[in-house]
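Before surveying the methods themselves, let us examine one representative protein, written as a sequence plus integers encoding its fold.
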Amino acid sequence: MNPKWIMVGMGWACVLMLVFLVVIGWRSQAQSVPATNPPAPTTPAATYEPTEVENLSLQVKQRDAVLAQVALAQASANFHKAVADFNAQVEIVKKAHGWPATVEVDPTALRNNEIKFFLAPTREPGRKPAEKDGTAK
């Protein structure tokens, strides 16, 4: 037999196998697609109603949560105002001592009992901050 015909036959066998796999894949995909019209429910929708006492208890807890949310918003506003007042007082102290504008307060001052001032490192404009080993990124 001529090797050329063997190669042609193998080529056709590969093509037929590919077509066969595509058809099987297409049929299995077509079978797995759900119907466009779902079946109508045979049972009526269930209703979930708490008792009157449970409903009143839920309303009390809901109002408690709303009041707590209002208190949280007020506490947050009070905190932000206190921080702004602290920062304003820092600026007053800096002006009273004639310190340069680059003097800053320790950022942990709100958590710690000690308030420390330090001279902030300056950067040249347009330069990226240096890493710990002194090289720029």
Strands lie at 103-105, 117-119. The longest strand covers residues 103-105.
